[in-house]
Amino acid sequence: MKLRRWLASGALALVMALGCLVGSASFRAEEVSILMPSSFTDASAELVKNFNREHRGRIHLNLIRGPLTTESISDLAISSLLLGDAPFDALLMDVTWLPKYAAAGWLEPLDPWFDQADQEQLVEGARLGNDYDGHLYRWPLVADVGLLYWRTDLMKEPPKTPDELVSVAGQLVQTNAVANGFVWQGRQYEGLSCDFLEVLQGFGGEWMDTTTNTMQLDTPEATGAAAWLNDLISAGVSPYAVTNYAESESLQAFKSGDAALMRNWPYAWAELQKDDSNVKGNVGISLMVAQPGERPGATLGSWGLSLMRQSSHQEAAVEAIRYLTNEASQRTRFLNNGYSPTQANLFSDPEMLKSSPVLPELQVALNHAIVRPPTPLYAQLSDVVQRELNGLFTETGSADEAMATSQQRSQTLLRAAGATP
Amino acid sequence: MTVLLAVPALLLIAVVFGWPMLRYAWLSFHADSVLTGLEPVANGGANWIRLAVDQRFWLDAGQTARFALISVGMELLLALAIALLLHQSWRGRGAVRALTLLPWALPTTMMALGWRWIFNTPYGPIEVLARTIGLDSLDLLSTPSITWLVTVFADVWKTTPFITLILLAGLQSIPDDLYSAFRLEGGTPLQALRRVTLPLLLPYILLSLLFRLAQAFGVFDLVQVLTGGGPAGSTESIALYAYLNGMRFLDFGYSATVMLAGFLLLTALILAGTLVLKTFGVLRPLDR
Question: Which of A31, A79, A255, A393 has the highest Cβ tally under 10 A?
Fold first, then answer.
């Protein structure tokens, strides 16, 4: 008798406990996690707070603060995706990752959620680099393109052609008006590929013909572009140290007033207007130089949000993606952190223009955006070019040889991977 | 019975060492990349054929061997000198012993970041120092013929204490009586080093060589942080190349092939080294 009563009360307690668990689960908000590089999580903290206030009880958004550099965050994301149970529902992706991630089957197409009307609101450059194989896999968070920064106190207008750049910068160095003419990214890393693509476009060449999957690196245009970069260093227009410069080293040299021209991303503008900058108020932005008659190019380097296929909160994650990329969020991020907007109408917005008078130039650059070869094998192809170009700058050898080797190694890679007949 | 006692240890080795090696060997005969949807597809010996004609792999293998042999050689000589010094008794020896271990206690990545800053052009302290005494820019991290020496330097700085520690332990195991007897027979200190210390220290030297060679041949973190394999690929190691193929290019079949080939090369290197030492009779003291 005693035992039975004891059992009954035990069972009742168990049922109550289970009920509580189930009840609380149904009342608890859906958890959505997004992995981003630390600079972006820091810039989005306020937005996340607002999102969670507006969606209280429904969705709880949590940003995972990843490492700062592009390569580290890619390693982190890939490691967890390979293990199969990534702790994030969406990921902030660099433009070059997309084909690789999409081909690996890690991404969920966003076509059901974003339509043509959404696309048309974007500035031209922001529409690129979001698709793979006919599907939309990424929605842009910031628009980023390579720019040519120039010193308004040292020249009347920025150089437009490669020859002009050499003569203007060379003269400034020779007359000791400035220590270095033109600083850019010559280190063996992805930044070098971005710089090269811009010059290549300006010389009328292209990296890869994606319709036939053939490399175009040993054309006269490509060889000319590589030779021009190499000559910048040997002629003293660029310091030899650029062969080990990434973005931050270039910025440091330009910001301290030691350079007349710099190739960098839009984020540098806000840096150069700070009080510790020696060139504050003396900086203009323009496009990378191009041969007469050729269209200048600006390498697209944007970040955007992608939905993970294995996420079990896809609807909620898309709601978060929409919120973080909407007009108000773009405005906040631009005014507080200097991240370029993606929506076309914001480039002529009075409040935005007051904060940064170079927005129109930025829009022009975005209309000249060019993408790096959109293939899953891009990382390999870029690695070949980085290595050969950096070798050209730091060792003896000709641009012809370097580009012929790049061409041959790239073709071998494509063939080994079965991507070309 | 004695064999039975070894079973747990053998099982452990099979699980943590044997299984991954077998898996690598299996993977090296498969295409497993983004283009196969990350599913392994048998491709005969295509990876190995690709490796055989992959100039970059052989270049990296040469660079890795050069790095390993030179840095371990220098570490051994330095460590021997330091260990002999630290074995003598003098005031403050304890504190110095602790201090010499410091580089070894630092995480490699932190140390590599530090060197990267120290050697950077144009704002690093070395560069500034060179400029103040009127030298041209050194460009230590962007000159292919020099940068690999910087990686050797950083490695020697960091791991000499490890060998010192092993050799110091070895020195302490040599009984003082042997030296007294040797002195009594009229031997000089230099002869004592050659006839007593070195032969008795040999097992420790070989042990540290083996440890360090295997470690240096697999160098990754130091190079990844200090140079990223540049300039112009002149500091890229086999491990870095395997990592690039796996994590950056998502080509796991070829990555496994590169890693396995690196392992085979290391084994060959150590076998060849043993053979040379045997031929010259260096290993004879071990036979007793």
Answer: A393
